[in-house]
Structures are given as structure tokens and as C-alpha cells.
Amino acid sequence: MTAIAPDALLFITTGCPNCPVVLQGLSDLVKQATIGKLTVVNVAAHPEMAAEYGVRAAPWLRLGPFTLTGAHSAAELRQWAAWSSGEEGIIQYVEHLLAEGGFKQAGVFIAEDTSRLKPLLSIVAAPEKSLVVRAGVSALLEAYTNTPVLQNLLPQLAELTRHADHRVRADACHLLGLAGSPAARYYLEACVNDSNEEVREIAAESLLMLDAA
User: Fold this and answer.
1) Orientation of helix 166-179 relative to helix 197-212, angle to 10°
2) Contact assessment for residue 209 and residue 178, using Cβ atoms and an 8 Å cutoff
3) Partner of 184 for a Cys bridge, out of 32, 50, 52, 176, CB 3.0 to 4.6 A?
């Protein structure tokens, strides 16, 4: 199935050194049908639109579901356009935001569509990712403690309790406790006998959390 070309909204300012480069890159992608529609707004001409979108610096770009600021090469814009649909784009975008200190923006992105949390479990399952990114994803998931949003991820979290890396198993046990679902008890009880001490401790703590829920 052919992916739908995303639309783009670009805010620029007069004298902005990076705006022409981004504008040219986006224009080329429109010509190639990689982007469906490009809307360009000069902040000086429409400050009310800039205020509506919370634009504080230019270039500011909304490309599909993603909000990007600053300079981006034509290759980077093409890649973000390709990622605008599908789970891989969600993972890459959230990882990008967290690495750049954009936790609040990542939280807003998830709140817009909480189904975006599910792909992020691939980061939980990747202990080689940076601590900043892994901690950020955990915090995003923790924001939905004792809610159906986190409870719906129980099958995936249960699978992670059998991961080869003990750090992943420990994180999965922690999140299972936060889910607040009685169904998590079965998986946590199995982890109480894990070969790793940290996993055993977190599983026991999570069981206590379920009892208190």
C-alpha cells in the first residue's frame, strides 16, 4: 500500500539564514510528491498564526504529525516525510525529542494519540539506548499509571519480562506494577523467582503496588 504523502506547514522570518534552505528542500519534496501540500507563513505577516502554533523561532515546521525546528537538510526532510506514517516514525521522533531535551513536547505528542505509546516499548526493550532516552520513555509510560492506556500494553510488557537482558525485565516489572491490573500479578509472581536480584526486588515491589491499588 502506498503511503500517503504528508502535508507541511512552514513558518519563516525575513532574514532567517536557515529558512531558505528548509523552504527549498520542502519545495523539492512537493515537486516529487513526497509531500502533498506546502503552506508557508511569514511570521511578520501573520503573528497571530505563529502565536496559535506556539512558534518561537524560525524555521518552524509541522510535517505530518511531527514538529521540527531549526535547520534540516533535504535528506533529513525526506526521511521525516517517510517516517510521517507508521510506528518507526513515532519511535524516531520521540527518541529525537528526548535526546534534545524535549520531554514536554514528547508528552504532548503522546497525549494527542496514546496509541503512540505501544511502539515506544521497543525502546524499553533496547538497553543499548541512552539512559536519557530510556528514562524519558519510562516517564512517558508512567504518566498513565493505573489507566487503561497502560493496562492495554500488558501483553507486550509480559513478553518483556522474558527478555534476555535483566534491565529490560526489571523495567517491565516496574511498569506492570504501575498498570494496576490484577492480570499483571501472574507475570510478576513468575519474576519473583528471576535469576537476577534486581528483577526479583522490583517484581516484589510491584506486587505490593498491586495490592495497594
Assistant:
1) 0
2) yes
3) 176
3-state secondary structure of 82: helix
Where does residue 193 rank: exposed (0-12), middle (13-18), buried (19+ CB within 10 A)? exposed
Question: 87-212, what's its fold?
Answer: Leucine-rich Repeat Variant (1.25.10)
- What are the residue boundaries of the structural domains of the chain, listed by start? 8-82, 87-212
For 101, other C-beta atoms within 10 Å of its C-beta total 10
User: Can you name the CATH fold of 8-82?
Assistant: Glutaredoxin (3.40.30)
Cα 14 to Cα 24, 58, 59, 71, 193: the distances in Å are 15, 10, 10, 15, 64
pTM listed for this prediction: 0.91
CA atoms of 179 and 184, how far apart (whole Å) = 8
CA distances from 172 to 6, 13, 120 (A): 34, 46, 13
The pLDDT value recorded for residue 2 is: 54
pLDDT for 3 equals: 67
Whether pLDDT at 59 is above 50 = yes
Q: What is the structure's pLDDT at 212?
A: 80
Identify any residues that bridge with 126 across adjacent strands, giving them in sequence order.
Answer: none
